[in-house]
Amino acid sequence: MKCLILSCSPRKKGVTSTLLTAMEAEASRRYETTRADVNSLDIKPCIGCEKCRPDKRCILPEDDAHRAAELIRGADILVIGSPTYWGNITAPLKALFDRNVPLIEYIDGWTLKPMLKGKRAILVVSSDAPFPFSLLSSQAGGTIRALKTILKAGGVSIKGILSVSGAETFEKRKERLIRRAVAMLPAK
Ligand SMILES: Cc1cc2nc3c(=O)[nH]c(=O)nc-3n(C[C@H](O)[C@H](O)[C@H](O)COP(=O)(O)O)c2cc1C
User: Fold this and answer.
1) Distance between CA atoms of 50 and 148, rounded to whole angstroms?
2) Per-residue b/e over 114-127, b at no fewer than 16 CB within 10 Å?
3) Residue 25 has pLDDT above 90, yes or no
4) Does the Cβ of 14 fall within 6 Å of ligand 1?
5) Residue 84 pLDDT > 80, yes or no?
6) Mean pLDDT of the residues in the chain
7) Is 88 near ligand 1, meaning CB less than 6 Å away?
8) How far is the CA of 125 from the centre of ligand 1 (A)?
9) Does ligand 1 have an atom closer than 6 angstroms to the CB of 85?
10) Listed residue (154, 146, 153) closest to 116, CA to CA
C-alpha cells in the first residue's frame, strides 16, 4: 500500500508539520510512504485554458505539478495537511489542484468522471480561530469544504478529518492531538 503525505505549511515546527511528522513515522511502518513539501514545489499557476479537459494533461512546461500528479495517481492513501489561510487551503496546494483538474475529474460527454476512485484520504487542518468559530466557512470550515470539494470530485473517500482550532494553545494539547492524528491512519 502506498501513502502520500502532502505537507502544506511553510512552518516546519508548526501544528500541521508536527502532526504530519508523527503520522509519517507511523505510516512508514505500515505502508510505502512518501512526503511532499508542497511549499517547496515549483508549480506555476493555472492559466485557465482548459486544454487539460480534452488532453488530460496540463499544457504548461513540465514542472512539479506534473510530477506531483504522478505521486497522487500512484497513492492508495492521501494524507493532506494544510493550515487555514483566509478560510481556505494554502495557495501552493490550491495551485497543485488547479493544475491537475483531469487527474481529479474528467468530462466524458455529459458526465463528470471521478478519476481518483478507490483512494482514501485523511485531512489535517489547523487554524487560529477557536472552536466553534473555526467551523465557519470563513475559517477552518472553509479549508475543509475546499478539500472535500476537490476530493469528492475525484471520488476519493475521506476517512478522517482532524481540525486543530485555537492553534496558539497547540503545545498544551500536542500529545493528545498527535495520538488522534495517528489513530486516523488505516490499518495496513
Ligand atoms: C496568510 C494567513 C492567513 C490566515 N488565515 C486564517 C483564517 O482565515 N482563519 C484562521 O483561523 N486562521 C488563519 N490563519 C492562521 C493559521 O491558520 C494558523 O496559525 C495555523 O495554525 C498555522 O498552521 P501551521 O502551524 O501548521 O503553519 C492565517 C495565517 C496566515 C499566515
Assistant:
1) 22
2) bbbeebbbbbbbbb
3) yes
4) yes
5) yes
6) 97
7) no
8) 10
9) yes
10) 154
